[in-house]
Amino acid sequence: MNKPIYRVYLVVVVLFALLVAWTSRWTVFEAEALRDNAKNRRELLDQQRIDRGPIRDRDGNLLARSVPGPQDTYSRRYPENPLFPHAVGYAYVDRGEAGLERFYSDALVGDHGEITSLLDQFLARKREGDELRTTLDPGAQRAALDALGGRKGAVVVMEPDTGKVRVLASVPGYDQNAIRDQQTFEALNRDEENAPLLNRATQALYPPGSTFKVVTAAAALDSGKFTPDSTVDGNSGKEISGVPLANSGGKDFGPITLTTALTNSVNTVWAEVAEDLGKGTMGEYMERFGFGADPPIDLPADEKAPSGEYRNGRLLSPTSQFVDVGRMAIGQDKLLVTPLQMATVAATVANDGKRMKPWLMERIVDPDGRTREDSDPEQEARVMSETSAKELQQMMGNVVREGTGTAAALQGIEVGGKTGTAEIDPDTDLNQPWFIGFAPLDDPQYAIAVTVERSQGGQGGTVAAPVAQRVLQELLG
Amino acid sequence: MSARNRELFALIPASLLVTVGFAAVFIQEDELISDASLTYGGVFLGLCFVAHLIIRATLPDADPYLFPLVALLACFGLVMIYRIDETLAREQAQWFVIGLLVFAATILLLRRDYRVLERYRYTIALVGIVLLLLPRVPGIGAQVNGAYLGIDLGPIAFQPAELAKICIIIFLASYLRDTRQVLVQGARRFAGITFPPLKHLGPLLVVWGAAMVLLVFIRDLGSSLMFFGAFLAILYVATDRASFVVIGFSMFAFGAWFFASTVGHVADRIDAWQHPFDDELYEQVGGSYQIAQSLFAQADGGVAGAGFGQALIETSNGSPILPAAQTDLIYALITNELGLAGACGVLVVYLLVTERGMRIAMLAQDSFSTLLAAGLAAVFALQVFVIVGGVVKLIPLTGVTLPFISYGGSSIVANFILVALLLLISDRARREAAGR
């Protein structure tokens, strides 16, 4: 009877081989699909068990922390009346992640790549998240929020030489703790009028108005075709792209230097300069300033937008036939920008022409106190020569000293800047006031961009410059 | 080296496993577990050693590898259960004590000649059938997931099918020893297929009927597959007629198809098996949630596993993510934590146990011993196939246990009896083979 026994055993072997094959099917061949299955909540539940590291501002105050819940789980808590809801974002198992919580999620959950994870697994070490220390400055941020006083808008402050972002204010804000509730979250998402979840500093696209003349001026000086003393006709009503262009208030300035033209924000001069430079040169300098690309700030890609000429919701090449280069040069035409982009323009001028990568991360520290990552200053582009930049700094100094930006002036500290007032709806006198600048003028420590949404009759000099003044006062005072 | 010394050395892997396993759980949850619980491991190893001494004293010539392999599985199971729940592990260890007592009792009772069992074959068969039907007796029967597999006697819950499988195998081995010659000689060829003689077809039809009754009354496809598969294995070994197996299997398949489409619960189980991610079935009580979670757990494990003690068993509010992790789905938990590699390792040990069983069957000198050993080995292997096959969605998921690994008293006791019988057969066979 031994032969049939042998055959029975062979059948058993075959059956077991089937078991191995099916186990392989789920563990290897179809594992990916099973992990992505909507009914599979393991990954989410797994994340709940990780003690996410805290997020702190530059003074060490907590911006986000994990609190233990039932059964070895943790959930996220944020300060009440948070200063930085948009920058910090949130991380909830059933809500997903946003902001720095999302961008630095790997570090915050202590995921240091395959090898160390395997080692942790082998040693059965509980995974602990790293701490994220940010560059965010609570005092300056509070000053910015106070100065905006509930008006919708944004303030961005950067250190020109390091790119560290000190202020990233977006009004209105929201309470990160409240959105744990599904209905609150949906309500905030539906509120299109206030769009509280929108990070206006990095995502909102506004017409820049005359602040863009700084870009035009940089192109003019650095291309070598103009100097601060070059004279251009500043009369109102000059034909630009075949259509007459007016100065603010229809004022005729006659032939004036570029310095005077920036101080008084003379549209016709800068439009003519740009037409003279041409779309190619303008486009090149815009690109160097970072227009046309996602800002390299450490935030998730869908929480930042590229600045530039937009047509039907799509970015245009600066050399496109649809671009009216003269009007673009004074911040009109189809130009839409983020406050972060305009802060970058001011910071680049202040940093003698070098554009730095903006950083929200100061450093990442593991639970043992070792620094894992540091935000080393990174140069993104050399936009203009040091000479051109210094000339432009002086021209911007004039704007605050005696031009449209006097409201940004500080006691005893010289400020460089440029105002802007984009008309949103001339019939109802709705404007988008702007101020970009830096201080101190001779040794810039901070670059700033301020904008306010739909200001009734507001001007850059009267609405945005005072906000900048208060923030710079807080930082330098 | 003598057989018993080989057995003693072969216990080393099990000891290592239990030591390393408990140490791992201990390190993993150092705050939660007292030193005292570590002693379970020690006690458990002690039990294995005691069992070895029993075998040494009573069955000196028995197969030296069977018990160490079983001990390896049992140690592994205990570590897994310990990792799920300390209390369950303590209970499981207590069941092992009882299991070993029954193991020793079986050996002592049948030491002189286990073939006395043949004399009581009809009694044993009756006991087996009664045991099978017990779960349907009102008052003590317990329904789990629509299947009637267990009985509930207040403090003890019991799966009678575990014991019944041994009774049925003893009966079949004994019955077929008598009739095998007749079955072969009286066979008729009809339409190119060899049929057993009509006179002896009756009892075989009875067995088939029993399997169908099992399917209808117990409502468990897996158990009936296990029983009927073992029956076919014994029948084939007894007659060496593949056609009998084909006929038998066809009858079973037909019956299974017929009842699956008429008995509600069985049909539900098959639906859940075919469409584990169907929204309705997934939400339904006793629907496809369990099998879907089993697959998710295995996907989570991958090739190398998530790491011992890393798998999710329940959510933070205590609702199960891996339902019945300590019984039905323990294989999914093993795959989750130790990966495809660990799961294959476990399967290989089961295959080795089966191989020892089959080898014992080949070595046995008389037909009853051969058929009994082959039947026991086959039913053991089929039980593993049925539950693991269910967990990996090869066949519909059922409620039988993974021998020696799953939590559960009746499973341990019954499988210890099974091993005791194999060792008894082996001892006699090897002694006779050696001419002593």
UniProtKB/TrEMBL annotation, chain A:
Domain of life: Bacteria
Penicillin binding protein A dimerisation domain residues: 52-129
Domain Penicillin-binding protein transpeptidase: 153-473
InterPro entries listed in its UniProt record: Beta-lactam/transpept, Beta-lactam/transpept-like, PBPA_dimer, PCN-bd_Tpept
Signal peptide bounds: none
Pfam families recorded: PBP_dimer_2, Transpeptidase
Entries under PANTHER family matching the protein: PENICILLIN-BINDING PROTEIN 4B, PEPTIDOGLYCAN D,D-TRANSPEPTIDASE
Protein name: Penicillin-binding protein 2
Protein's organism: Svornostia abyssi
Automatic annotation (TrEMBL), chain B:
Record keywords: Cell shape, Membrane, Transmembrane, Transmembrane helix
Keyword Iron-sulfur in record: no
A Pfam family reported for this protein in Swiss-Prot or TrEMBL: FTSW_RODA_SPOVE
Transmembrane parts of this sequence: 39-58, 65-82, 94-110, 122-144, 156-176, 197-215, 221-238, 245-267, 329-351, 371-392, 404-426
Lineage top rank: taxon: Bacteria
Membrane topology of the entry: Multi-pass membrane protein
Cell compartment(s), UniProt: Membrane
Protein name: FtsW/RodA/SpoVE family cell cycle protein
Organism classification: Bacteria, Bacillati, Actinomycetota, Thermoleophilia, Solirubrobacterales
